[in-house]
Amino acid sequence: MPPPSPPRPGCSAPPYGGGVPVLLYICQAAHFLDVAACNASSLATHDAPISVTDPRLDVLCARIVKYYSLRRFVAETGRAVEDWNGAHDAALFHYSSGMQAIMVAVGVCDRVSVFGFGKVADAKHHYHSNQKNELDLHDYEAEYAFYRDLAERPQVVPFLKDTGLAVPPVVFYH
User: Fold this and answer.
1) Is the pLDDT of residue 154 over 60?
2) Which pairs from 53-58 meet CB under 8 Å and 24+ separation?
3) pTM higher than 0.85, yes or no?
4) β-strands 50-52, 170-173: how paired?
């Protein structure tokens, strides 16, 4: 295995190695600056630039997670779908980066094995911060329901079947 590459100046992405691509999605304006800074600092030392996901994947992920969140909200509260926006920060609500990583794997792999999903109380939320609380702008329980369906009953996942994507076997190890 090649040694890790040096950090990219001005880039918050960890150095996995010069030929290891990094994929991210844009959910805040500041992320555009991250992409520009990382790619500008890596051109001389890295074969693989920082890449941004296709907006169609972003829309698919957003639709799936919102569907599962709405379904959970109605089932648990008995309230109308229209009340969901008031109960969540609808303007900032979006899927987690972990959910998108799983969707990318589903799209490009013949088999998907997922390790380490779920939350331990004293674990950090992200590798790059000391924050331990979950972010309110995600609905992790809705994502977990999606993961169960993806592994056990992929044919019931809404919007996914409309893509024509053949879902590979997906296994979660806890």
Assistant:
1) yes
2) 53/23, 53/24, 53/25, 53/100, 53/104, 57/25, 57/100, 57/103, 57/104, 57/107, 58/25, 58/26, 58/100
3) no
4) unpaired
